[in-house]
Amino acid sequence: MGDKIHIFDTTLRDGEQVPGCKLNTKEKLDLALQLELLGVDIIEAGFPISSPGDFESVSQISKVIKNATVCGLTRAVQRDIEVAAQALKYAVRPRIHTGIGTSDYHIKAKFNATQDEILARAVQAVKWARNFTDDVEFFAEDAGRTENEYLARVVEAVITAGATVVNIPDTTGYCLPHQYGEKIAYLINHVPNIDKAILSCHCHNDLGLATANSISGAISGARQIECTINGLGERAGNTSLEEVVMIIEQHKYLGLYTNINTQMLNPLSREVADTMRMPVQPNKAIVGANAFSHSSGIHQDGFLKDSLTYEIINPEQVGAEGSKIVLTARSGRSALAYRFQKLGYEFNRNDIDQLYQQFLKVADSKKEVMEEDLRKMAEAHVPEQAVA
Length: 388
Ligand code: KIV
Ligand code: ZN
Hints:
By secondary structure, the protein is α/β, with parallel strands linked by helices. Helices cover 44% and strands 14% of the residues.
């Protein structure tokens, strides 16, 4: 089976920070229940001090979630932590996620402080949070741009203070996969008490590398990945849950596994897109409308002979509707015959040759040839032999 990767879902916190995606308590509650069914290990339910509405959402979610850990975000501020603890008081498994910026950008521009002062505040926050729960996660914001030596000092100190999970966010999505992986490896090799905590990947997608960076972190030894359904999140988004889960599933030799019920990936993606009013791009991996569509003649011919030629995932495995043969001006005869067959028309090779010429004329005039176009062609078709 290998090593478990804990899936920390932050759709309801980082994902909900997307402009226009704000959810009310009922919507958050419904999605939290679905996330639990999906099998995520941790649900980051919100940022309780940020608004009374978010406090209420975290509190309500804490009451209904029975298996997953429910987590609330805080700054490294005593009052934030107390409010989060209050919101989480009904949770079966409460987690406080506290932290502070550790890169020079944050230390100087945001806090006008020194590295030592930030380290002291980090330790204080973790110790304070431990008064309320044994499950405390610390985030070193902008760890992606924090020099490794200082980061290792912070990680060691917060583990000593009681952090059980240490989150290494690439907050700005700056790192390349090998750099992020090396950062995780550096921490594993240089933090003496690293065996007392789990390292977590939290990667943003500003350069389109969030998923690659998270997988690189996991290969280097991180055992938690923070991600969102449909990759929602600040700016260009977070690591997409469906992508990391299916990478781990597809590449079993990595020796990693998750508890995710993969058949829920497409239905839940749609539910999140609808609830958050944020449509999924059609070419999105795993859950996009075109993820299992084949449109060019070369691909369609290969796919119809053996689906494995052009598909590495069975759509059923991820709850998708099924593979689609889409007809466009790039499609070939085998696809056309297949689509006619699906509509109940059996044509021989000769018929298809004739129909194909007609099909190309229609296809050149529009983006996609639809079922009604095919029916019209089929009904109007007079086989050549009959004319002669
Ligand atoms: O991107 C980030 O650094 C975050 C932290 C609050 C974990 O979202
Ligand atoms: Zn984030």
